[in-house]
Design a protein that fits this description.
The protein is of the alpha/beta class and 448 residues long. The chain has ten helices and 14 strands. A hairpin with an 8-residue loop joins strand 3 and strand 4. The protein is globular and about 55 Å long. The termini are far apart.
């Protein structure tokens, strides 16, 4: 009964996310009647004066969550069957499938605003975890104090430590079938083949917070994410996989994911960018080389989906890092036209996660003082936004384009764009949910 309840709640949560319109970089539904405080954040200026928004830009201050990033749009046959996968982040062996134990503490859910009714779908199943390329460090997560003690479903979203003050954490669902991940790998290999030997193609599947911070007794509720990252790598023939989970795992006691939002924190993006730059063989400075800034009172998309007022009482701090080297930024429309001078950071509006890049519906070009001839094209969803500042020290040029063509975020041919700008490196920096979305894969394949 417990197992069926959890599965039903997870499936409903995924349909809630899929039903929302994909827009902006991330906290509320754009042009909706969502309360304004959902994406509120107060800027705490710790160093020099903030940059102003470039003329001609109009970043949305209430941007929609990347709904299909926190919920996979699986369209394959595997969606007809479902159980749960039984692995934990701290092990690299292949465990057997078991019945998920009941949570140790039952906490009644607070009164919340219930979203519109949704249609339940069924998640695919994975029972075998691919062998990792490297052994993860042995970490006793129970001694770090980061794993929630309790789990509570609120509007079909799992919330950890709902009544434990600043420990509260909203955990968005992930589900994926290995066959879809294998198709993502084939798509990346196709890019590598078509772009030729002068270009290196990389895949970076970015795990959700649930990969590291599931409440005790709920560890196996969602599809195990490290195995899904390794599955992509195991199926690649020519492109290169970045094991983002392995890059983040040693840092799980640090502030690498927001508690109130479905995105990661820029600190998590820093560790992932480091793994990529080391593989790409480009410079990557220590975090101390960046200017550290912070926005207090950041409340992300978790408030919209759960209605929990505790998230406003115990908000996040959005901490980001500004490169100190010289660079210029030009933004273009989704057709790569009408360029105008812009900025990497939108700091005056208290935009939380949208502080970096200011939004998604554009093409961003960054010219740096690095003279190595390397040109990076990052094809991303909103999880890739937080990576962008950490590439400014490693590449002569960086182009940021979005994978969501069907939502109007980028309207050019991906392959033609990479060739036209002289790409030497192409990075698919996507939430793991996008990597395991057949619709995302088909768009990337069909519009090469």
């Amino acid at each position: 009964m417990i197992r069926k309840k959890r599965l039903s709640a997870l499936c409903a949560a995924i349909m809630i996310c899929v039903s929302m319109a994909a827009a902006g970089c991330g906290n509320t539904i754009e042009n909706s009647n969502t309360p304004k405080d959902v994406s509120s954040a107060t800027v705490s200026e710790t160093t020099a004066a903030a940059e102003t928004t470039a003329p001609g830009t109009s970043p949305a201050t209430t941007a929609a969550p990347e709904t299909s990033e926190s919920a996979t749009e699986t369209t394959t046959k595997e969606t007809a069957e479902a159980t749960t996968t039984t692995t934990t982040p701290a092990t690299t062996t292949t465990p057997a499938t078991t019945t998920t134990p009941a949570p140790t503490t039952t906490t009644p859910a607070p009164t919340t605003t219930t979203p519109a009714p949704v249609t339940t779908t069924v998640l695919p199943v994975q029972t075998t975890k691919p062998k990792p390329a490297t052994t993860l460090p042995e970490i006793d997560v129970s001694k770090l104090g980061v794993q929630p003690e309790t789990g509570t479903y609120v509007n079909n979203i799992l919330v950890g430590d709902i009544n434990l003050g600043a420990r509260i954490r909203v955990l968005f669902p992930f589900g994926g079938a290995y066959s879809v991940g294998a198709d993502f790998a084939r798509m990346a290999d196709e890019y590598q083949t078509k772009l030729g030997g002068g270009v290196r193609v990389y895949t970076m599947g970015i795990p959700l917070a649930a990969a590291f911070y599931m409440p005790k007794g709920y560890e196996n509720t969602y599809t195990e994410e490290h195995g899904c990252i390794l599955n992509i790598g195991n199926n690649l023939k020519s492109a290169t996989n970045i094991d983002t989970y392995a890059a983040l795992y040693p840092h799980i006691a640090e502030y690498i994911y927001s508690r109130t939002d479905h995105h990661w924190q820029p600190l998590g993006a820093y560790y992932a960018a480091q793994a990529f730059c080391e593989e790409a063989g480009v410079p990557f400075p220590d975090l101390s080389a960046y200017e550290k800034k912070a926005q207090q009172n950041f409340v992300g998309s978790g408030l919209y989906y759960t209605g929990l007022q505790q998230l406003k009482t115990y908000p996040d701090t959005f901490t980001y890092y500004k490169p100190r080297n010289s660079y210029t930024v030009t933004d273009y429309n989704v057709y790569f036209g009408n360029g105008y001078k812009s900025t990497l950071f939108y700091e005056n509006a208290g935009m939380g996660y949208c502080t970096i890049l200011g939004g998604d519906m554009k093409v961003t070009e960054i010219n740096t003082d690095v003279k190595n001839g390397r040109v990076l094209v990052m094809i991303k969803d909103s999880y890739g936004n937080a990576l962008t500042p950490f590439f400014v020290n490693g590449f002569q040029k960086v182009y940021v384009i979005d994978c969501r063509r069907t939502d109007g975020y980028f309207m050019q041919n991906y392959g033609s764009f990479c060739r036209s700008v002289g790409a030497t490196d192409v990075l698919f920096a996507l939430s793991l949910s996008s990597c395991y979305s057949s619709s995302r894969i088909n768009v990337l394949r069909n519009y090469f």
